[in-house]
Amino acid sequence: MSEKVMNEDALFTFVSNDSIESEKIIAPRYSYWKSVFRVFFKKKTNWFLIGLFVLLVLGAFLIPVFCPYNPTENVTRANSFNLSPSAAKAYFAGDGTTLKWIFGTGGQGNSIFYGIWSSAKTSLVLAIICAIINMVIGVIVGAVWGYSKGVDQFMLVVYNIVANVPYILVITVLVYVIGAGFWSFIFALTITGWLAIAYFFRTQVMIIRDREYSLASRCLGTPIPRIISKNIMPFLTSVIVTILATELPSYISMEVFLSYIGVGLSANIPSLGRMIQEAQTGFLVYPWEFWPPVAIAALITIILYVLGQNLADATDPRTHM
Amino acid sequence: MKKYLFKRILFSIFSLLVVILTVMLLVYSLIDRRVIFQTDDVWNKRSNNERTFYEYTMYQKYGYLELANYTSFIQQKFVALYGDSYTTNEDFKAARNAIQNADKYLDNESVQEFIKTYEEKGYTVTYLEPIKYGNGRTKPGGTGYLIATVEKSMFSRLWSYMKNLFSFESTKDVQDPELTDRYIRIEKDPYNGFYALVGSGTTHKYLVYFDSHFPFMHWNWIHLNLGVSFTKYRGQEITDVITTPTGELMVKETQYPAKVGTDEYVETAIDFHSLTYNNGTLTEAEMENYPDKYTVGTYRTKGLSMLETSFVIGIIATIGAYILGIPLGILNARKKDGLLDKLGMWYIIFIGSVPSLAYIFMFAAIGTKLFNLPYKFANAQVKILAYVLPTISLALPSIGSLMKWMRRYMIDQMNSDYVKFARAEGLSEGEIFRQHISKNAIIPIVHGIPSSILGCLTGAIITERVYSVPGVGNLLTTAVNGHDNGIIVACTVFYTSLSLISVILGDILMSKVDPRISFETKGGR
Q1: Phi and psi torsions of A288, nearest 5°
Q2: Band (B377; pLDDT cuts 50, 70, 90)
Q3: Given CB atoms, is B27 within the 8 Å cutoff of chain A?
Q4: Which of B349, B354, B478, B484 should be substituted to probe chain A, the one whose Cβ sees the most A Cβ atoms within 10 Å?
Q5: Quick one: which of A192, A173, A165, A197 has its CA closest to A258?
Q6: Per-residue pLDDT tens for A113-145?
Q7: What are phi and psi for residue B171, nearest 5 degrees?
Q8: Measured on CA atoms in the order A246, A252, A254, A257, is the torsion positive or negative?
Q9: Does ipTM top 0.85?
């Protein structure tokens, strides 16, 4: 055996003492958004829900393009009114488009299947626009409201007064005065809607604002914009997503509710609320007209809600451990 | 505490005023006022000037404007000059007929005086010229009118509303010179042996009394005047609309007031506690049966009023929700991530996210198809069954939200130091949950109790509509659709007051349950 025994000098070498290098902390790099998505996509249900949601969105935006919904196409053919799926299939057998009558016909011979997709598109667009407007105004006002004590006193008075005006009253009077078009409907939903979000956000800002680390940061002279963006906002991302998770489905429910009480969108805009409202009187006799729009509304709201809640959980840094 | 409460109440009254003002501003200036005539038969029957004049009188009645009419102006003027015989006076006849001649009406002295008086007051004078056929005969409803109008300002409208909100009965209410014995005193109630506040000279005989009907203590002394309905209940008082019971008469064996103590009984539905003063002359039978002129009573009915119907459904649902929701929330928190907790979470997600319309109809379908329960309220064969589905529909979302918050507060408390300490002391899990965590977790829940009880008085919009419950829930929505400003303002006042009261009550209740919460200012900020 010619084993070469190394001596200590060959095994070890001296490392130069670099004072700058020794200040570095060696740890896996933490990226906030990467961690958020890692936690979010670890759940199998989220993959499933996202897939379902993408299908719904594609359906809502693509089906109306290729198969435009015309509620009055069969209005002159009284025999085509209120047909059950099997009856409709038989009645329109010569048509060739079997998918169109898969859920039967409505009170004017309209296709329920095409109707729910056009309506779902309206509801989704409405919910997204309302959510964006209300969230942006609500979060900005809420942040200022929570941070400044002078603004707080004034805004509390405003809030206590506006919150007591019945919400339905504001919306119905506005819809009545400015008309029931798509944009005036959005205006009515957002004119006071942001205030509740701002109030909720204000409370959260106040909680974080008075935490010790924030106070320490202020004592060290950190400028306010930096405190807001670096100390407060990261904590509030999950709050914002939580609000969004409840807000988005709530506008869809709101539209359904308002249509039901008779102050919904105007008649020429297909919407889930209008379809439900038109079918509700005969919902025991013609269930195929009533349940498909209800099911689509319920499906969209549940998916948005669960996805939002799970995303909110994932955006909370405490779950990233 | 007293000073704090006083401040809170003062601020609540202020915000109530601002809310009423805002709503009045919305409905009186934004909604087209002509809609009140859409279903008005009187308006349809009238034509030409008569219709226009009728419109102005209705605007005055519903608080849009102040109206002065030339005819009543000259009447007053000539009564002052010539007494009751003014109708035969030539000047009066000339003044009366002047406005029927469109060319020369300005020549009349009274017309000039009318125009001058009201223009000085800031009124706008409108002359509705007589409308005539070619042969000189007046068209139907074409008589001339001379009127002066001024729009009411928002503040005067608010002031007159607030002034009339509460009215109290006094001994001067009855305008009968024959009634000399006027008093208000506490007497023994001959019908049940309790004491009652009895008045003479007041509109009602019994001002405060007790009986076996909900709410057991009745006040006739104070009247809440929420306003008058415009279109839906044309001219009716809204307080009466929502509190007047409906249904069949309830006949009871009782005695007339003058016959109490004798053995003469009578079968009648008249509620002798509701007697009011009769200004006319009494019949012989009335003189025999009543000791005084308080002879006009209302009838007892078997049905409930709108307010009571909503309240009964609401309160059963609320109590049920608390009884089920809180223990379920505690249970879910104890067995966190167990099967029951998972099921509970899905229920909460379902109830919280799906449009309420969807699940109410779902339960309506399940209830009618599987359990054969009545769907529409009025169609129920057995009256009590009609309440089942609305109550369940109302309770389900409350159970969900109570469960959600109770579970959340419990889990928040479970990680606190005092729980770890209790565990270290050797307390059993049951003891920790019952005596430590539950007590702390329930505090925020307690805050919502007054608002959920008082909220029953406002009714439920969707539930009542789906099952056609004759409650108050749809009062506001139908009023908005029917442009009934009176009901809209009344509902706003009612809802706002209830929500303001319930927040204050909730705060008081919370400070009673948790002594750590105090509204005293302790200095510092």
Answers
A1: -70, -15
A2: confident
A3: yes
A4: B354
A5: A173
A6: 888 888 889 889 999 999 999 999 999 898 888
A7: -70, -5
A8: negative
A9: no
Instruction: Map out the domains of chain B with their CATH numbers.
Output: 34-152 (no CATH), 166-224+247-296 (no CATH), 306-513 (1.10.3720.10)
Using CA atoms, how far apart are residues A259 and A277, in angstroms rounded to an integer?
Answer: 6
Determine contact: B503 vs chain A, CB below 8 A: no
- In which element (H, E) is residue A314 found? helix A287-315
Structure tokens at B199: 């008045």
Residue numbers in A near B23 (CB within 8 A) = 165, 169
DSSP reduced 3-state for B42: helix
Mean pLDDT of B137-162: 85
Given a contact cutoff of 8 angstroms between Cβ atoms, the answer to whether B70 and B117 are in contact is no
Look at the block and give the residue holding tokens 């969900």. B400
B19 with A257: Cβ contact below 8 A: no
Q: Could you give the count of Cα atoms lying within 13 Å of B227 in the half-sphere of its Cβ?
A: 25
Closest to B148 (Cα-Cα) out of B123, B183, B176: B123
Query: With 60 as the cut, is the pLDDT of residue A1 above it?
Result: no
Torsion angle in degrees (nearest 10) through CA of A199, A203, A206, A212: -160
What is the model's pLDDT at position A52? 92
B369 chain-A contacts, CB cut-off 8 A: 284
SS3 B138: strand
Measured between CB atoms, which of A169, A294, A305 is closest to B488? A169
* Average pLDDT across chain A, whole number: 82
